[in-house]
Amino acid sequence: MPTIASAFLADPPDVWRDLGFVVDDDGRCWVSGLAITLGTGEKKLSGWSLRDWDGPDDIDGLPTARSDEPAQATPAHPNGVTDLDHLVVMTPDIGRTTAAIEASGLELRRTRDTDQYGPPFRQTFFKLGDVVLEVIGPVEPRDDRPARFYGLAFTVADLDATAAYLGERLRPAKDAVQPGRRIATLDRDAGSTVPIAFMSR
């Protein structure tokens, strides 16, 4: 099964250090065996690399590289992060993007329709090792733009402790879609260029 080796973000390393992540001298933050590579010069979340990948180098507009870099263990992040729960992709045409991901060799695990946040939208889910790839888009196609990487959701050891660490930079927690879990999102003024959420176990 392919796994994520790297995700490439524009955020400066010091922003992530200030948010309580351990970032090495090469500007990489390790979690769930993948390196979140910071300060890439690209806007927001620009691409990823995958291990054990023999699929295309572009999946419906998502730049996809191959990597043989071995995984590293998650360090003790001061903000309490233990895992990357899911990586989020946004698309204006979820049928097209989901089909492209399936054609690349990844297995569709689940489809969910919801109006939880306003207008109805659809979610499709794939697994890359322990990390979920969550694709979000309108139920009906909106336009022909490509898919894009959107955000990251981390699991933490203790969401209340993470909230205390981040203070006003973290919005109040609410019930997550997964029963028994809670989620809190990072405020846009906290410094990251990508949406980041923290989830209880």
Overview of the molecule:
With 201 residues, the chain is mainly beta. 12% of the residues lie in helices and 40% in strands. The protein contains three helices and 14 strands. Strands 8-9-10-7-11-14-13-12 form an eight-stranded mixed sheet. The protein has a six-stranded mixed sheet with strand order 2-3-1-4-6-5. The chain starts with a strand and ends with a strand.
List the helices and strands and how they pair.
Elements: E1 3-9, H1 13-18, E2 28-31, E3 34-37, E4 45-51, E5 58-59, E6 62-66, E7 81-90, H2 94-103, E8 108-114, E9 121-128, E10 131-138, E11 148-156, H3 159-166, E12 174-175, E13 182-185, E14 196-199
Parallel strand pairs: 1-3, 4-6, 7-10, 11-14
Antiparallel strand pairs: 1-4, 2-3, 5-6, 7-11, 8-9, 9-10, 12-13, 13-14
Q: Please provide the ordered H/E string of secondary-structure elements.
A: EHEEEEEEHEEEEHEEE
Mean pLDDT: 95
Q: How would a crystallographer describe the biggest sheet? A: 8 strands, mixed
Number of strands: 14
* Percent in strands: 35-45%
For the biggest β-sheet, the strand order reads 8-9-10-7-11-14-13-12
- Portion of residues in helices? 10-25%
Uncertain regions: pLDDT < 50 for 5+ in a row?
none
CA-atom Rg in angstroms: 16 Å
Instruction: Name the shape in a single word.
Output: globular
Q: Quaternary arrangement of the chains shown?
A: single chain
N/C terminus separation: 24 Å
Number of helices in the DSSP assignment:
3
Q: In terms of structural class, how would the helical and strand content be classed?
A: mainly beta
